[in-house]
Amino acid sequence: MNIDEQLEVLISYLETNKISYRENYSLKYETYFKMGGKVKCFIFPQSCDKFKQAVIFLQNNHIKYKVIGFTSNIILFDEIEYSVILSPKNLTLLEIHDKVVEVEAGYSLQDFVRVVSILNNSEGYEGLEGIPASIGGAIVMNAGAYGCDISDNLISVECIDKNNEIIILEKKDCHFRLRNSIFRSSGNYVILKAKFRLNNGNRNLIAKNIEKFHIARHSYLDYVYPNLGSMMVGKDDVYKLIFSKKLFYSIIFWILKYSFRNPVSKFILRKRPNRIVFNKLLLFYLKWEKNISLKYKLSPKGLNTLINDGNVSTQEIVNYIFLISSDLLENKLDIENELVIEPSYKINPEFETTYNTIINRLNR
Ligand SMILES: Cc1cc2nc3c(=O)[nH]c(=O)nc-3n(C[C@H](O)[C@H](O)[C@H](O)COP(=O)(O)OP(=O)(O)OC[C@H]3O[C@@H](n4cnc5c(N)ncnc54)[C@H](O)[C@@H]3O)c2cc1C
């Protein structure tokens, strides 16, 4: 079957089985980064059973599809018309029994943190506050911050594998690592729901931690432009890694770093913390050391956050990601944000160079 025949069969199945979908659906304003072309068939089943049914049908019929969560870590491209995208956004049941929470993949992580931490006094989830993820997407990425990962209190994950088996993976089988899991590295599972442990904690202390982390996030995350959090994974300061190659820039970097740590600078920048000075040093470095005039507008919060200012082209974004990750950092850090180029139905011919850049760079 060619792709049009597959789509015809799929749509007839969705109609017969009353599974929610839309045809020729525009993703642009649906995604977190506010980018993305149309999708021929966007499926958003109303319940976990209908979601399973849709996955099994797609897999049985060898129809390629992409599952998305809240899209806060993925870039979909305006120039690609996608074929099939599946969203668990209606999978939002949450139940609590005997200190165990069972929650479906489409539930909001931010709401989850409040339910477990504030309403049920469970400590160990505070660092997840402010991560704009679905439960499914957060498990795939092993999302975390401030010394807390979603896998810390996870018991098990229920998912569908490529053989259409519904399986339950215990935490130890999920191979969680920094921003990684078996779900991400293999791409072989669709997450349906998960179980988490509730701990005992002091609500006032938990609330204080949540507030502290919420404020801290504002100091390093962009909250003006559509963005995707951190572009690369790592504990190291990305500027430090780049400038460490040249003594001159390294010295200036450390001088700036310490001068911004003093109480006066902190007070002046308290309402608008930013890394504009470091960005300027980067532009200077690129110009004089690499002969590159960067067109891409950097986030005031730092070079490790991609932003969409409404004017940037996808080519510039892709060039920027590979300039920083491969050319400057020599792939020392993994790229956290995912560039979604499949399953495509049609690609704008002008996008082909960018498309090939992505394929070549990711396969290196
Ligand atoms: C402002 C901002 C702050 C952020 N801060 C942090 C942070 O502090 N820490 C951190 O770790 N991340 C952070 N992120 C990144 C992002 O929120 C996380 O990576 C998050 O886990 C992505 O979840 P999602 O639901 O949006 O998944 P998506 O971005 O939609 O998808 C991510 C991957 O998971 C897959 N996927 C999604 N749902 C399922 C499912 N049910 N079954 C199988 N596969 C699935 C997708 O195919 C994709 O490969 C931040 C992002 C933003 C925009």
Structure overview:
The protein is built from 12 helices and 14 strands. The longest helix is centred in the middle third of the chain and has 18 residues, at 203-220. By secondary structure, it is α+β, with helices and mostly antiparallel strands. The strands form 4 sheets. Strands 1, 2, 3, 5 and 14 form a 5-stranded mixed beta sheet that branches. The chain folds into 3 domains: 3-86, Uridine Diphospho-n-acetylenolpyruvylglucosamine Reductase, domain 2 (2-Layer Sandwich); 94-218, Uridine Diphospho-n-acetylenolpyruvylglucosamine Reductase, domain 3 (2-Layer Sandwich); 231-335, no CATH class. Helix 11 (314-328) packs parallel to helix 12 (352-363). The model has no long low-confidence stretch (mean pLDDT 94). Strand 6 (94-97) and strand 7 form a beta hairpin. The structure holds flavin-adenine dinucleotide. Residues 32, 66-74, 88, 105, 131-134, 136-138, 140-141, 143-145, 179, 183, 190-191, 221, 227-229, 338 line the site of flavin-adenine dinucleotide.
